[in-house]
Design brief:
The chain is α+β, with helices and mostly antiparallel strands. The chain has two domains: 95 residues, Hypothetical protein yqbg; 80 residues, no CATH class. It is built from four helices and nine strands; from the N terminus they run E-H-H-E-E-E-E-E-E-E-E-H-H. The strands form two sheets. The protein has a five-stranded antiparallel sheet with strand order 1-2-9-5-6, with no helix packed on it. A four-stranded antiparallel sheet has the order 3-4-8-7, with no helix packed on it. A hairpin with a 3-residue loop joins strand 3 and strand 4. Helix 2 crosses helix 3 and helix 3 runs antiparallel to helix 4. The relative contact order is 0.22. The mean pLDDT is 92. This is Head-tail connector protein. Pfam families: Phage_connect_1.
Length: 194
């Protein structure tokens, strides 16, 4: 199972100006460094929470529908990178590598659940791919929205605090354990596994 980002976020949850104000930086000499820190901080928050902050298009490739911890009979599959906005297509790949698009009339997309999920419509089960490996492709859109205003304030604050950690200490501050202030900000957004 692999998750690819087909279309990355168009913007970051925190602007360069917001980060510079947070850092109290008034010059433009390190704008590229600060921009890179924003991207790295957003990626770290997303990795820690399992969430997509800004809208992006993703593709998950599966061998089988029965993904441990995400598959619930009778026919429900939770998708990664919540919040789910839409499923744009599900493709099944046959043994001869031919592709068949699974009709959207045959499944239900639940964007209200967290994480979002798909379910088989009716009593039939998920269709079987013809290939043993990488036989299922699910294309979907995930994220809180297209702009920074759509991202929860606590997650934007976590990004800013990580930028603040990384700016003065450029020797890998973003790869160290999360500061307690960031842990507390992202705690409500972490997925709990039982």
């Amino acid at each position: 199972m692999t998750l690819q980002i087909l279309a990355p976020p168009g913007v970051e949850p925190v602007s360069l100006d917001q980060a510079k104000a947070f850092l109290r930086v008034t010059h433009a000499d390190e704008d590229q460094l600060i921009t890179d820190l924003i991207v790295a901080a957003r990626e770290r928050v997303e990795a820690e929470t399992g969430r997509a902050l800004i809208t992006r298009t993703c593709r998950e490739t599966l061998d089988d529908w029965a993904v441990e911890g995400r598959f619930s009979p009778p026919g429900t599959l939770k998708l990664p990178s919540p919040p789910l906005q839409a499923v744009t297509g599900i493709t099944l790949i046959a043994a001869d590598d031919s592709e068949t698009v699974w009709s959207a009339d045959d499944y239900i997309v639940d964007t209200d659940s967290d994480p979002g999920r798909i379910a088989v419509r009716g009593r039939s089960g998920f269709p079987r791919p013809g290939r043993r490996i990488a036989g299922i492709r699910i294309d979907f859109t995930a994220g809180y929205g297209d702009g920074p205003e759509d991202v929860p304030a606590a997650l934007k604050e976590a990004v800013l605090r990580l930028v603040g950690e990384g700016y003065p200490d450029r020797d890998g501050a973003l790869s160290r354990p999360l500061p307690l202030s960031v842990v507390s900000l992202i705690a409500p957004y972490r997925r709990v596994r039982l």
